[in-house]
Write a structure and sequence with these properties.
Shape: rod-shaped
Number of strands: 0
Radius of gyration: 24 Å
Mean pLDDT: 84
Order of helices and strands: HH
Structural class: mainly alpha
Largest sheet: none
Number of helices: 2
């Protein structure tokens, strides 16, 4: 995923008619969203891997229970 850098955001905001202070603050805030999203994606990938193992363990427990039940 690619994000715009803060300088590009700043230039676009200035071209859109924002004041310099407002453009600077908004560009900084919008630029930091990319960092937050990257961090969240990393955490979600780890959770997905953990959930796969939990599903495998749950399936094994279910099969063990059913095999003991129908003996």
């Amino acid at each position: 995923m690619s994000y715009k850098d803060t300088l590009e955001l700043y230039d676009e905001l200035m071209a859109g008619g924002c004041t310099e202070t407002q453009a600077r603050v908004q560009a900084k805030q919008l630029g930091s969203i990319g960092t937050v999203l990257d961090s969240m994606n990393t955490k979600l990938d780890k959770i997905d891997k953990d959930l796969v193992w939990m599903r495998v363990i749950g399936a094994a427990m279910t099969l063990a229970f059913l095999s003991a039940w129908f003996k």
